[in-house]
Write a structure and sequence with these properties.
Layout (H helix, E strand, L loop, with lengths): L1 H17 L7 H19 L9 H20 L4 H19 L3 H4 L5 E2 L16 H24 L1 H11 L1 H6 L4 H27 L1 E2 L6 H14 L6 H16 L6 H15 L3 H14 L3 H34 L6 E4 L2 E4 L4 H33 L3 H4 L1
Antiparallel strand pairs: 1-2, 3-4
Helix pairs in contact: 1-6, 1-9, 1-10, 1-11, 2-3, 2-9, 3-9, 6-9, 7-9, 10-11, 10-13, 14-15
């Protein structure tokens, strides 16, 4: 989660802060990881560098490749920039399968994190020591990226995002600003890649793939693009869902995609935006009524959700896993997917749950109207 948090925050330096939608941000994560793993191999061969400093080399690698690719990609913005990053991502992935001396081919490059000079008496053999190293680098990276948002460059990045013409009118070159932001994002993505190399002791093509670029995009949007800590929230939630859902269902990616769509459509501010929307009510002492209305609406919503899960699981089993047979274990019981009753039950749960859920919308609306009548009255007193 911490590694994903650093990567998502670095991506938000492009998307949320500078307005650059990138489809290939994993390139700098992966290339930084490759640089770090090669340095780790040199350490295994006798270089006197503590292993826990590997993220420095990963960051320098991400910075160098960010400067290289950003020198021409940041000359354009919008859709053109997005397409350039997508092409660069595919280009690097293709190169990783041919330039085996650096990328190691499909097997990747591996090294031993325990074979190196000790620092603070830690040899990084126990996973808990690796956790402490990652947590420390996470804290350093978060503080550094937050400090970047408070600098004049960070402020002008917001101006370029909102109106590049006005930024140019007051004397700033939008292309140069985008280039510096791109390099900074590559730096921190490389740090995350260096931590990945320490944690797994191997870096492979998967770290460069469009799948990882898509994952960091999901994390940033679900957490909240417009808030600094939003990508961290998204990284925690998405990482937890990837780990936990995959243990329960083979269709976990379908649930994840649905969750992303619902967030973008109904909560464009992300999960962080939803939480912050309720902070003024909490300060004014008006939050309890809204929460009670949510609790009333949650019951039919849970019924509708269970029906959707019922329908998705039996459909997914028949469509993608027919070789496993017709019997499916779900909700603690067994279901014969060839019979009619599971389908009728799922339809009834979805239809009945939605109708009941629809009736609770007015309850939630009245609770909000009541809370917003004088939301700051108690705080003013």
């Amino acid at each position: 989660m911490a590694i994903a948090g650093i990567l998502a925050l670095s991506y938000n330096m492009l998307l949320g802060q500078t307005g650059l939608l990138s489809f290939g941000h994993a390139v700098y994560f992966g290339l930084g990881g490759y640089v770090a793993i090669h340095v780790l191999r040199l350490i295994n061969n006798g270089w006197p560098i503590p292993v826990m400093l590997l993220p420095v080399f990963g960051g320098l690698g991400g910075l160098a490749f960010g400067a290289l690719f950003g020198s021409f990609s940041t000359r354009r913005a919008g859709t053109v920039f997005a397409m350039i990053t997508l092409g660069l991502g595919e280009l690097v992935v293709a190169a990783s399968l041919t330039l085996t001396s650096f990328f190691g081919g499909e097997e990747g490059v591996s090294a031993n994190r325990t074979k190196g000079p000790l620092l603070f008496g830690m040899n990084l053999a126990p996973q808990i020591q690796v956790y402490y190293v990652i947590a420390a680098w996470f804290a350093i990276s978060v503080v550094a990226m937050y400090a970047f948002t408070r600098t004049p460059l960070g402020r002008i990045c917001n101006a370029v995002r909102d109106n590049p013409e006005r930024a140019e009118f007051i004397g700033y070159n939008p292309t140069r600003v985008r280039f510096f932001a791109f390099m900074a994002a590559g730096l921190f993505a490389g740090i995350a890649g260096g931590l990945h190399a320490i944690n797994y002791e191997i870096v492979a093509t998967e770290s460069l793939s469009a799948v990882r670029s898509g994952a960091v995009l999901l994390m940033t949007y679900i957490g909240g693009v417009g808030h600094f800590f939003g990508p961290i929230v998204g990284a925690v939630v998405i990482t937890w869902l990837q780990v936990s859902l995959s243990d329960y269902t083979a269709a976990w990616q379908l649930y994840l995609g649905t969750f992303f769509i619902l967030t973008v459509v109904f909560a464009p501010g992300g999960l962080t935006g939803l939480v912050l929307m309720h902070v003024p009510l909490a300060r004014a002492g008006k939050l309890l009524g809204v929460l009670l209305a949510y609790a009333v609406a949650a019951v039919p919503a849970a019924i509708m959700f269970s029906g959707c899960v019922f329908l998705l699981e039996i459909s997914y089993r028949l469509a993608t896993k027919p070789e496993l047979g017709r019997v499916l274990k779900l909700f603690g019981g067994t279901i014969d997917t060839t019979q009619a009753w599971p389908w009728l039950t799922a339809a009834a749960l979805i239809g009945g749950g939605f109708l009941a859920f629809r009736k609770t919308w007015s309850i939630v609306a009245r609770a909000w109207d009541t809370a917003l009548a004088n939301p700051l009255e108690k705080g003013a007193k």
